[in-house]
Amino acid sequence: MTSRPVTYADYLKIEGLLGLQAPKSTETGMPAHDEMLFIVTHQAHELWFKQVLHELGSVVRMFSESIVDEKNMGVCVSRLQRVTDIQKLLIDHIRVLETMTPLDFLEFRDLLSPASGFQSVQFRKIELTLGLQGGERFGCPTSPYVQALAASEVKDVLATAETPSLFVLVEKWLERTPFLDVEGYTFWKSYRFAVSGRIADDARAIESHPLLSPENKARQLQEIENTSRSFEALFDESVHASLVKEGHRRLSLRATHAALFINLYRDQPILHMPFRLLTLLVDIDELLQTWRAQHALMVHRMIGIKVGTGGSMGYPYLKSTVERFRVFNDFLSLSTFLIPRSALPELPPELKSRLAFAFNLS
Ligand code: HEM
Asked: For 27, phi and psi rounded to 5 degrees?
């Protein structure tokens, strides 16, 4: 039996795919031209969300191993890079949808109610896979995000919530970083010494400055005192614990030290990939924030300050999520604690050679 060669349409299931756009306004006999754009933009988002989950899921699996294989680091980095490229594309999708005018949207908006973006299962799964915490989404603690979903969807979303997120897995991986305490070298002690030296130098420079008034000196010395205290939180387990409790930090102290080490000594060959990975997590967070901001602006433009079809306050609610819903904030905040390369303590030669790639001629 000879099988028919595969065709473009068969392979991609084009007929099914193109049969999935069913504008409600057409059903009512008063077709609204822009409803097609509205549907296609949402569907395109959902397809890309599927791809994002595919990429994130594979990274989560590789990071779920008790030891993350170094060989997989490059793969993880390129998949996370791909996620950021998709995110950029999605921000542009919103620009395309914005070619619809608010008046044209009104032609069919009532037909959608009470359907809402709150019901995007894949969007919730992306948030949870990354590690977004907090069950409430609608600005009201009694409204968990699953409330908007059907029972079968709740099960699916809660299964993702119960799986260790990328945040948790990366934190564990960082905590296992072997280079922080080796052969008489403790990273945080040497780093603390360097930082205290810099702070003392800065204070001396202010005290002896001939042009500063006593008030200016006092103000600047106070600034230095504040910086010094924020550095102290890096070295004191109990201060760190209270920052975590108050919601200012999330990453464990050990993982924070490791992330700092990677950031400071990123020029060491073995730290290149870990550094890129941490940077990409910050990129993903930032792009998700940009999407949220762009979506919120579009909503403002389309419906002003009317409430959403999902029952939220609409624009004010969405705007508030831009700042609140960040996952990898601790990695972003690390910049506060960076010191210039010239002030970095030298690594012990033994450790330096372990951080370099070895080339064995024998
Ligand atoms: C005319 C265009 C759009 C309008 C007016 C709009 C409106 C809204 C509103 C008001 C909300 C808040 C929930 C509610 O009360 O319903 C929301 C949430 C949401 N929308 Fe849109 N939306 C539009 C386009 C899109 C597109 C193209 C997507 C792509 C999938 C999308 C995805 C979402 C998601 C995922 C949420 C939940 C966000 C969160 O809870 O943080 N929306 N939308």
From this structure: -60, -35
Residue located via tokens 């709150």: 118
Residue 138 above 70 pLDDT?
no
Contact predicate 96/36, CB 8 Å: no
The tokens of 173 are what?
Answer: 């991986």
Query: Could you tell me which residues are beta bridge partners of residue 181?
Result: 186
CA distance 117 to 209: 58
Residue 251, pLDDT score? 95
| pLDDT 10s digits, 34-69 | 999 999 999 999 999 999 999 999 999 999 998 888
Tokens of 360: 């064995």
132 lines ligand 1 (CB under 6 A): no
Task: Point out which residues pair with 144 in neighbouring strands.
Answer: 136
Does the CB atom of residue 137 touch ligand 1 within 6 A? yes
Q: How confident is the model at residue 137 (pLDDT cuts 50, 70, 90)?
A: low
Residue among 45, 107, 111, 118 whose CB has most ligand 1 atoms within 8 A, to mutate: 118
CA angle 177–180–183, rounded 5-degree value: 120
What is the torsion angle, in degrees rounded to the nearest 10, for the CA atoms of residue 337, residue 338, residue 344 and residue 347?
Answer: 80
**Residue 179, φ and ψ in degrees, nearest 5:** -90, 5
Tell me which range, 181-190, 232-241, 281-290, is most confidently predicted by mean pLDDT.
281-290
> What crossing angle do the helices spanning 121-130 and 35-63 adopt, rounded to 10°?
30
* pLDDT score for 141: 57
Q: 181 vs 100, 188, 197, 233, CA distance in Å?
A: 58, 9, 21, 19
Q: How far apart are CA 21 and CA 35, in angstroms?
A: 10
Give the residue-averaged pLDDT of 142-161.
86
Output the CA torsion sign for 101, 104, 106, 109.
negative
Nearest residue by C-alpha to atom 43 in ligand 1: 117
Phi and psi for 105 in degrees, rounded to 5? -65, -40
Residues of the chain by 3-state class (helix, strand, coil), percent to 5: 65, 0, 30
DSSP assignments along 153-167, one per residue: HHHHHHHHHHSPPHH
Return the best residue to mutate from 52, 116, 124, 147 for the ligand 1 pocket (most ligand atoms within 8 A of CB): 116
pLDDT for the residue 37: 98
